[in-house]
Write a structure and sequence with these properties.
By secondary structure, the chain is an alpha+beta fold. It is built from five helices and four strands. The chain has helices at about 25-30, 35, 45-50, 70-90, 100-125; strands at about 1-10, 15-20, 50-55, 60-65. It has a four-stranded mixed sheet with strand order 1-2-4-3. β1 (about 1-10) and β2 (about 15-20) form a beta hairpin. α4 crosses α5.
């Protein structure tokens, strides 16, 4: 099963796609986006990762996670996601003044965690929202 939420991040002119799935291989194949998330066409995404971040151009960013993901993995993938968005916009890392970066990492971590909390019963019991 798969659930997806799209968040518009207007300040960076992009969309963030939160994908919660117990079958990442099926999702990327059905959406025809495997080439954006793996250099290896036959990579088993379910077996090889707890989460994955990838993007199509500079307007669509994806974070794909299993429904049983823990908060540490959500935070980890959030760092990759926000880092990629900043990098694509020429925003260089400034470790003496990283408040904006930290804000967005915290924000997307909270968004992902809240979404998973809201849809958890969908995966656990096969219920709809």
């Amino acid at each position: 099963m798969t659930k997806e939420k799209k968040i518009k991040l207007d300040v960076f002119l992009c969309d963030i796609h939160i994908i919660i799935t117990d079958n990442p291989n099926k999702y990327v194949d059905e959406k025809r986006i495997r080439q954006y998330c793996s250099d290896t066409p036959d990579e088993d995404l379910e077996k090889n990762c707890d989460g994955i971040v990838f993007h199509k151009g500079k307007s669509d960013y994806y974070v794909m996670l299993p429904p049983t993901v823990d908060l540490g993995v959500i935070a980890h993938e959030s760092v990759h996601l926000i880092g990629r968005i900043f990098h694509d916009r020429g925003q260089l890392a400034d470790y003496g003044n990283d408040e904006v970066y930290a804000y967005y990492v915290g924000w997307i971590t909270r968004e992902i965690n809240s979404y998973i909390d809201r849809i958890y019963s969908y995966f656990k019991n096969g219920k709809t929202e």
